[in-house]
Amino acid sequence: MLNKNTxxxxxxxxxxxxxxxxxxxxxxxxxxxxxLYEMGQRDFGENYVQELVDKQSRLPADIRWHFxxxxxxxxxxxxxxxxxxxxxxxSPNLLKEINKQGQKTQRVIEVLLQVHIAxxxxxxGLDENQLNEIFNGSAAPASHVHIAGLMGMASFSDDLEKVRxxxxxxxxxxxxxxxxxxxxxxxxxxxxxxxxxxxxxxxxGATMVRIGSLLFGARK
Length: 220
Ligand SMILES: *Cc1c(COP(=O)(O)O)cnc(C)c1O
What we know:
- The chain contains 9 helices and 8 strands.
- It is an alpha/beta fold.
- It is globular and about 45 Å long.
- Pyridoxal-5'-phosphate (PLP) binds next to strand 8 and helix 9.
């Protein structure tokens, strides 16, 4: 069930801090997305390419679609024509492919670099060295991709101080690279925080949070 009170409550927590809410609608039916849309929500996040393409074709054109999952290079072309922001860029090769598809569709595609901040091995993301390579090496961004900031996921843990310290680390990397003088790079977005930890993320400087289950209820 869509939790309308929770939606307003979350917005009232985000607005004073100027934080953008991405409503994570993966595995949720279009009816629930429409219900939230009718309350004014426009930013929605999806994890799976085929599901996103399908929903995009069925839902209003002014929805800003965020791709927040792990993106395979061979699927970039499917979302390149319409995607608003790709959160999970975790390799120079993927960045290259996004640039190529941006060229084909005559768009400049907005992306965030995903940084590995959790200590779990299963989560995707660049480590600090790879991040450095992107900014200092041959993998510098090209004309049809715009790096707008960083994204990260904290450890799935009850230890809130651990979660906080991981967000702190991402924020400090964000501050460090936000001064980088690179063509097609301008840091404005720090995407961190989900249903269980978004309040901590806001305290630690998030400008965008990605909330799913708290809004829509458990996923199927
Ligand atoms: C699923 C997902 C979310 C939302 O998770 P909830 O715990 O349901 O809020 C946020 N970010 C990413 C990258 C996700 O895959």
